[in-house]
Amino acid sequence: LRDDVVERIDIGGKSVKADYFIFATGDKRINQTFLKIAYEDFGDRLLTDTALFLPLQYTDKRKQFHPYTVARTMRHGWRWITPTFSRIGTGYAFSSRHVSQDEATRDFLNDIGDTSLEPRVVDFKPRKNPQTMHKNWATLGMASGFLEPLDAPGLTLSVSILRQRIVPYLMTIHQQKTQKLPVTQKESWLGFERAKYNSVISNLVDFWAAFILCQYKTSQRSDTDFWRDHKAVEWRYYEDTVANLDKYDSMVEQTMFHHTMSAKGATWPTRQTLEPMKMQEPKFPSRHHLDIIEDLRKQAGFMPVGLA
Ligand SMILES: Cc1cc2nc3c(=O)[nH]c(=O)nc-3n(C[C@H](O)[C@H](O)[C@H](O)COP(=O)(O)OP(=O)(O)OC[C@H]3O[C@@H](n4cnc5c(N)ncnc54)[C@H](O)[C@@H]3O)c2cc1C
């Protein structure tokens, strides 16, 4: 790494040269040790930092294989229950500042109803990368930063940052190559583009962090320090976002807050009020999604290997 330019990287004994690198290695160490990026710690606004997780086997698949994730409050965090085709993924995201790992494990296994299980543990420290894009490289996904599993923003953020920020920047670099401008002018133009994209990305991450924080602040639970501390978090960006929801140009942001929170009866200091979204009764005879998936799998069996 020289003057914010990565010239080549060594992978598995091979030296790779490229014009532009995107680091999506899932590991925060690449940022800290190789790329020397300092994260902004979000641990003062999002309090969970550790997760226990394990797969469960189905005992009654037709009942348990629901097409949504359940996020259930626990004493010092929350538990997810995510059915996939072959198993049920479940985990407990908790705050290590509020409960020991042993106690969290006991709570988690009691909630599952099987104390013989041995969950795995991951520590994820909520953090933001304040500068995703650099002169000829960017970091993406977990390598770039992580908020927390609630609302599952990981893949959404990665895909939108890649498509709407990194790819346009690469196209700008490409266009510039064909333009006969002085080098200094090209560099200042690219610098301007990078700063613009970095600021948009940083705002996007803040927005998601505020949305997640909102779930805690509007939770009806306050029986432990974890829930009380989460409700007491003070973050100016959050307060401004909530107070100015009706000023967002796009309905997406407003809908995210209003629909999810209005279902809990939360009120907002904004002009706009939305009713919680109501599930419509299906207009056509409906089938259990397990039957639909099984049909698709059967059909896939007739496809040539590779497409199945
Ligand atoms: C508890 C928990 C729950 C989560 N739940 C969700 C969720 O519900 N929804 C969601 O969207 N996100 C979730 N996430 C975030 C999720 O993990 C990421 O969205 C997603 O896995 C990020 O992908 P990634 O490519 O950044 O990292 P990873 O999935 O870690 O992939 C990185 C890959 O890079 C490879 N690699 C590393 N170094 C090298 C190298 N030198 N050369 C070649 N390859 C290399 C690794 O082997 C790995 O395969 C969760 C995270 C945690 C911690």
Description of the structure:
This protein has helices at 28-34, 61-64, 101-112, 153-178, 183-217, 225-231, 236-243, 251-262, 289-301, and strands spanning 8-11, 14-17, 21-23, 40-41, 50-56, 70-74, 77-83, 88-94, 120-123, 127-128, 137-139. It is α+β, with helices and mostly antiparallel strands and 308 residues long. Strands 6-7-8-5-9 form a five-stranded antiparallel beta sheet, with helices on one face. A hairpin with a 4-residue loop joins β7 and β8. α4 packs antiparallel against α5. The longest helix has 35 residues, at 183-217. The radius of gyration is 23 Å and the shape is globular. Mean pLDDT is 89; it is low at 304-308. Bound molecules: flavin-adenine dinucleotide. Residues 11, 24-27, 51, 91, 122, 124, 141-143, 149, 152, 154-155 line the site of flavin-adenine dinucleotide.
Write the layout of secondary structure elements.
Layout: E1 8-11, E2 14-17, E3 21-23, H1 28-34, E4 40-41, E5 50-56, H2 61-64, E6 70-74, E7 77-83, E8 88-94, H3 101-112, E9 120-123, E10 127-128, E11 137-139, H4 153-178, H5 183-217, H6 225-231, H7 236-243, H8 251-262, H9 289-301
Parallel strand pairs: 3-11
Antiparallel strand pairs: 1-2, 4-10, 5-8, 5-9, 6-7, 7-8
The chain binds flavin-adenine dinucleotide.
Flavin-adenine dinucleotide binds next to α4.
**Could you state the order of secondary-structure elements as H and E?**
EEEHEEHEEEHEEEHHHHHH
Radius of gyration: 23 Å
Largest sheet: 5 strands, antiparallel
N-to-C span: 43 Å
Q: Spans of 5+ residues with little confidence (pLDDT < 50)?
A: 304-308
- Percentage beta strand: 15-25%
Small-molecule binders here are: flavin-adenine dinucleotide
Taking all residues together, what is the mean pLDDT? 89
Number of helices: 9
Class by helix and strand content? alpha+beta
Report strand order across the widest sheet: 6-7-8-5-9
Number of strands: 11
The coarse overall form would be globular
Name the helicity range: 40-55%
